[in-house]
Each structure stands twice: as C-alpha cells, then as structure tokens.
Amino acid sequence: MFQQLFKSIQEKVIVTHEEMELCKTFFIPKKLRKKQTLLQEGDICIYNAFIEKGILRSFYIDEKGNEHLVQFAIEGWWITDLSSFLTNSNSIYTIEALEDSELLLLTTAAREALMNQIPMFERYQRLLLQNAYIANQARINSALTETAEEKYINLGNAYPGIVKRVPQHMIASYLGLTPETLSRVRKQISNKS
Amino acid sequence: MFQQLFKSIQEKVIVTHEEMELCKTFFIPKKLRKKQTLLQEGDICIYNAFIEKGILRSFYIDEKGNEHLVQFAIEGWWITDLSSFLTNSNSIYTIEALEDSELLLLTTAAREALMNQIPMFERYQRLLLQNAYIANQARINSALTETAEEKYINLGNAYPGIVKRVPQHMIASYLGLTPETLSRVRKQISNKS
DNA sequence: AAATTCTCTTGATTTAAATCAATTAAAATT
DNA sequence: AATTTTAATTGATTTAAATCAAGAGAATTT
C-alpha cells in the first residue's frame, strides 16, 4: 500500500526506517471506484491525497456551465485543492477518480503533525511544491503563448501516460480547447506524417 | 534595509530576535537602477531575491523574437528563476528592474544553510511556495478561460499597484495579449462607464 | 529646446479557434 | 444482444484577437 509513497519520499529526502513506520500511521488508506469523488464542489477539502494507484482529475464548472479541467494526477502524485485545504474555505473544485484508484489521505491536522514530528517531511513537501511551481510556470507560458497544436504536442511529450489514459475531451479541457478543435488538431498532425 | 523582509517573515512564522539577527547575515544587499538586470538569459540564476523597494520583472524572448513577461514582483515579494536556481541550469529568463530597486539576495548555499539553521525559515519558504502555487493556479485558469477584457479587469482588481506602475505593453505581455488588443480593451471598458 | 526613442492609439484585414449543427463511433447499461 | 448514453468527427459559420500599417503622444537623451 505504501510503496509509491515511500518511493516518492526517498527520491527527495533521507528518512530513517523508524520515521517511515511512524509516517504510515498518519495516513488513511482509501479506495475510490471510477467516477467516485474525493471532493465535491462547495465542500471544504480536508484531505491531501497521495495516489498509490489509479488516476484522478480536479475540475470546476464556471457560471456559463462550462467544465474546466484543472489537474490530472496519476500514481506517485499528490492531488488536493490546496487553497481550500489550507484556508478551510469552500472548494470550487471537484476531485474525481477516472479509474478505480487507491489513495493515501492526509488531513490538515495529520499533515501539520507529520511536519512537526519529522522535519524531513516538511522538506519533502517543500520540494514537491517547488516542482509543482515550476510545472505550473511552464503551463502558464504554454497557455499564454502556444497554438492549439503546440499545446497538444508538448503535453503529449511531457506526459505521454496521461494523454493515452484519458478521454480526449478532457485533454481538450485541460488545454483550454474545445473538443472539436482538438479533434481537428489531431487530424492535422496525423495528415502531416 | 530589512524592514520588508522581517515583516514578510513575521506574517508567516514565529522567530526569535536572535534568529532574525542571524538571518540578516545570510543576505547580500544589492541596489539596482532602472533597466539593470539581476539575471541575464543564458546565465545560471544564483540568487533568490527579496525586494525591499522597487519593482522587477522576469521575461523571455521566444524563437520568433517575441517577448513574454513571466512575472512582476514588488516590495515584499521574492523573485528568481526557480528552475535555474534549483537545478543550476541555464536560465531562459532575464530579470530586470523596472524602477530603481533595493534587493536582498540569497545564494543557493545561503538558503540551504538558513533552512538548516532556522527550521522556521524552511517553513516560511514552504508557505511562500504554497501561496505562489495557488496564485499560479488562478493565473492558469485565467489564461485558459477568460476573455481579454476579463483578464485585464481581474488583474487590475487583484494587483492594482502593479497595473498602475508598469507600462501598458508589459501588462499586455503578462496577460498574453498584444498591446493593440489591450489598448482596445481599455477603450471599450472606458466607453461602458 | 530639439531630437530621438519609446509607448499608445486607431483603422483595415487576416486568422485561429469557438460555436452551431449533424453524424458516426464507441462505451456503458439494461 | 439491443438500447441508451457518451465521445469523437466533420462541415459551415461566426467571432475574438492577432497582424499589418500608420500616426499621435510621452518620455528620455543629447
């Protein structure tokens, strides 16, 4: 159950065997079936979720009723609504499993306690955030400057696993494109080669 | 010289007077005149800069020669190329002062040492990153889903200080718009009221 | 103060992507 | 297996923003 999490931690910081065992006690294992949700829009996000197995997405519905895909997350990644989680505010996002998934959940309190008891866990969290920050910066640049075709090709290169695993209209939504546009972009690409 | 920095730290974590004094010794004060750069594209970003006074921007030039504004930063904010800073890679960004500015610089080594000697500084850094992550998430949503007019109005509401202080074509670049489009958007808004 | 450079505005035209609409294809449910 | 639902494709049309082009207004520099 904890393989992916331990791997993720050990890639970033050095922790003792005892710390790892202690660490386990803070997490709540949880299985989600496809289409089940971890967080409903309007609720307060009380969990930081690590994905041992499966794939999830977070999304929101705007005033006009359009759905916007905010994040995908697969094995070895974390997912939450950080804003809601940290400030106890009502989330505008829904977090949903796209396949049957196995999660390890960390409540706000458990996360705080873990960071206080194992300083290396705070470092681990900071390093994760640094990487997420860099990835988001790249996504901003992509969203502001690239054409539809460039966005799709670059996403495929950066995260081939996700593009293959997820319905096409969700990829379109993640890139800020309509499903029709993405369909045409894909056709154009395949005609070129 | 350290007023803004101390204010920023004390807003986020609790530190002793001694820790604050120790903290000072890790920073290198630096003044930049308008148009001078802290980082040149192609160089390795060796500083994490805190802004005591002034305003800076980071930007890059794409293959087609177009300039893209990545970030603004004013008093009380940090600026760096995190990717270059953390991985010692060559930066694609240039960081430049838009007004005469006063900075406090932290090298990679000084930052590591500071985090090891004052654990609350690591927490401070993590909290900064959390906020930056949330802000970037909002910027992604804006870039992917909002019209030019919405982008401009929302930026003005979120950061009135920046919109007033900076040339209009830089705001346009930050929002991923051409200067012509922003000019027309502003005209439309003023015609409405 | 004059000259130069930089910044913003306005108009005409083009273009990439969205929208609207219909059909086919695939997946899920009964 | 048949039916229903969901997803993807294709075509016609519209639209928001980009591009091209020129001129006006500010701000720096000499």
TrEMBL record, chains A, B:
GO terms for molecular function: kinase activity. Keywords: Kinase, Transferase. It comes from the Bacteria. InterPro entries: cNMP-bd_dom, cNMP-bd_dom_sf, RmlC-like_jellyroll. Residues 30-116 form the Cyclic nucleotide-binding domain. SUPFAM superfamilies: cAMP-binding domain-like. This is cAMP-binding domain of CRP or a regulatory subunit of cAMP-dependent protein kinases. It comes from Flavobacterium omnivorum.
